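Re: the request from the purification team.
They wanted to know what the chain is likely to look like in 3D before they choose a buffer screen. I agreed to run a prediction and write the result into the notebook, where they can find it.
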Amino acid sequence: MNFEIIGKKVKLRPFKESDIDDKIKWMTEELEWQEWDAPWEKDDDFVPEAYRKERLERLKKEEILDFYYSLEIETLDTGKHIGGINSYYIDKNYNYIKHGSNFTIGIGINNPNDRKKGYATEAWILFINYALKEGIKEIYTQTWSGNYPVIALMKKIGFELIHIKKNYHEVNNKPVDGYTFKLNLEKFHKLNKEGY
């Protein structure tokens, strides 16, 4: 596991064995992030030991990839694992698909104490630059209407709202909308030049 993308505050790296305990903690104890990420997807069927076994099996087969579709976020000052960044594809109707051309990214900083420190901003900028360098031409992201912290981050980086899916899900018995954003590359490159 030599692949790393290093910034000023964080580095992005592949998943490693010591991350397993963090992921289990985030799925069983430190659950606040679920209120923001996708509250309707709470995984009540999560089985820690089954997850551990599955991840260890995957790590045995892990190899250097041409492109990393997901990476973990680690702070440079303390080496703390604070979350992850991932990617997937959406179709022309903005729905998830296994393979496609609409490259879409997401991020999770799991502990509230690790937020509002610039980690997520830098992680996204690092990952977007990596994707662009690897030939990705357009980048999308998605969230829901009540996820104000990530919406602010998206706009700051240069994402623009391009689609609203009305009544996408319910959160606390109230309908919420699904948002799809597309990266405005001109705004993003300007931000990069200014050192965000």
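For the purification team: The CA atoms of residues 32 and 38 lie 11 Å apart.
Please add any questions underneath this entry.
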